[in-house]
Amino acid sequence: MSLSETDIQAIWLTLRLASVTTLLLLLVGTPLAWWLARTRSWLKQPVAAITALPLVLPPTVLGFYLLILLGPNGPVGSLMLDLGLETLPFTFPGLVVASMIYSLPFMVQPLQNAFAAIGDRPLEVAATLRASALDRFVSVVVPLARSGFLTGMVLAFAHTVGEFGVILMIGGNIPGETHVLSVAIYDHVEALDYENAHLLSAGLLVFSFIVILLLNLLNKRTHPEIAR
Amino acid sequence: MRELTVRFTADLGEFSLDVAFQAPGKGVTALFGHSGSGKTTLLRCLAGLERRASGFLQIDNEIWQDDANGIHLPTHRRAVGYVFQEASLFPHLSVRRNLEFGMKRVPARQRQVSFDDAVALAGLSGLLGRGAARLSGGERQRVAIARALLTSPRLLLMDEPLSALDERSKRDIFPCLERLHSELSIPVIYVSHSLREVARLADHMVWMEEGRVRASDSLQRVLTRLDLSVEQGDEAGAILECEIALHDDKYHLTALDGCCGRVWVSRLDMDPGRAVRVHVPARDVSINLEKNSDSSILNIWPTVVENICDISASQVLVRLRCNTSGDGPRLLARITRKSCVKLHLKPEMRVFAQLKSAALID
């Protein structure tokens, strides 16, 4: 029993997609979560609802609208064509964009909760100890929200590894470009190749278990120090 | 002249703040008042933490805030040290790293308090390696005080640093505050609702009520203002600055010399020359027209009646000036209205004050 060339390619593609998505989500999600945790604006609830939408929306619906939006006739797609760029559907960057939207709540919500739990006081203390706003974020917020960052990154990564519906809608099935693990499993099952489907599925099962276990262990180790 | 000039207004919905006062740029200034009088809000204004407030703040000749002229230094650019009511240490850092947090953000040439001095003053040498979460309440507050000092502040703000502590931790921390008072020249603004704490630590007192300043003057003067003292009931009394003069071992007494004369109290275990503060409750001061040498009372001083104020239908409060000539400290005497009439007490009358008791403040 060994992995075929295509399957290995699918595994690498999946890991690359999940890593890139997680890193970009960290960059986008951190300021968004910070704003959601601290703002008193009326926009907070609408923005929070939009952020949470991928939690309840069927992935196929999300993928369908993204396909229309990003396709050559959609507003974003036609704009990209006008700018001389390739359209995103059925490309790796297209998958990244879709995955970021799909996994956004998994990054933002743990971060938002962690930021909100810190409260105003440590920031005020840091300000009276001469720390500027950016300094306060780096030296106080980031370490205190460590478990939030950890949870957000792991969940976003794992969720991206497991996505299927959105990818099928917007990515299709191009080896090396959009042929990710979940799609590969689907292909094996469709071809009644249960042996290889088992191999990949069991791998994902073990991967998911290890991720959740590690997360729990790490958070358990972090929390007693944070407790006041 | 080192001085602190403060003017702030803030409209915070149900509560509004409107204060203006000056305080000396040295020693301890107490912001005193009941809860809800705006003490903490004012302290936050001084630190620049209260965004909804506008006003003016000058320390020595440095202006930190002048909203009318568009000046408003953000908190991290003000050289303040702030000790919050609950110690608020960073839980992810050790005691040492907590102490260094502010220190390393101050340029080396501006540091006036050394790490070792602050650690010694707050008695923390045994705790440096510990995690902030593994300290008692009193230890945390001492770390918070040392941490604030290590930023070499121009102004140290303390928001009821003792209120969250039990009696034992308070006794631990008081010497630290007193050393702070006597060893460092950093002016302190100390928020408190406890007259006892204020009487022990403060030099200047700002009395706040419902977001306004009712009195701002030296501690002795504010505490002997009749209109404020009347409301203090049994706590009303004067504070005298004294020095241990000598011990009388035969009768187990100690003599304290102040600017108004000698006070005898029960034997104290302190070396002569040491400065102490003495509280003389109004209820324990009586008035004689003649110097009564037959009295059992040891402490009898010549004074001048300054003012008389009714407390109730039966009692009056009399303010007396020690040092019959010049501007001496004041005493308060609570006597019956009947005695007041019988003695024909009126301002500028020379009388003798008898101090039945005087107690060291601690």
Q: What does this entry look like structurally?
A:
The complex is a heterodimer of chains A (228) and B (362). Chain A is an all-alpha fold. Chain A has a single domain, classed as MetI-like (MetI-like fold). In chain A, 79% of the residues lie in helices and 0% in strands. The longest helix of chain A is centred in the N-terminal third of the chain and has 34 residues, at 5-38. Chain B is an alpha+beta fold and 362 residues long. Chain B folds into 2 domains: 3-223, P-loop containing nucleotide triphosphate hydrolases (Rossmann fold), CATH 3.40.50.300; 232-360, Beta Barrel (OB fold (Dihydrolipoamide Acetyltransferase, E2P)). Chain B contains 9 helices and 21 strands. In chain B, strands 7-8-9-3-10-11 form a 6-stranded mixed beta sheet, sandwiched between helices. In chain B, strand 12 and strand 13 (253-258) form a beta hairpin. In chain B, helix 2 (95-103) runs parallel beside helix 4 (137-149) and helix 4 (137-149) packs parallel to helix 5 (167-183). Chain B is globular. Classes of the chains: A mainly alpha (228), B alpha+beta (362).
Short structural description:
The complex is a heterodimer of chains A (228) and B (362). Chain A is mostly helical and 228 residues long.
How would you summarize the topology of this molecule?
The complex is a heterodimer of chains A (228) and B (362).
Chain A: H1 5-38, H2 44-56, H3 59-70, H4 75-82, H5 92-118, H6 121-128, H7 133-144, H8 146-161, H9 165-170, H10 181-190, H11 194-226
Helix pairs in contact in A: 1-5, 1-8, 2-5, 5-8, 6-7, 8-11, 10-11
Chain B: E1 3-12, E2 15-24, E3 28-32, H1 39-47, E4 53-59, E5 62-66, E6 71-72, E7 80-83, H2 95-103, H3 115-122, H4 137-149, E8 155-159, H5 167-183, E9 188-192, H6 195-201, E10 204-209, E11 212-218, H7 219-223, H8 226-229, E12 237-248, E13 253-258, E14 261-266, E15 275-281, E16 285-288, E17 299-310, E18 315-322, E19 330-336, H9 337-342, E20 350-355, E21 359-360
Parallel strand pairs in B: 3-9, 3-10, 7-8, 8-9
Antiparallel strand pairs in B: 1-2, 1-4, 4-5, 5-6, 10-11, 12-13, 12-15, 13-14, 15-21, 16-20, 17-18, 17-20, 18-19
Helix pairs in contact in B: 2-4, 3-4, 4-5
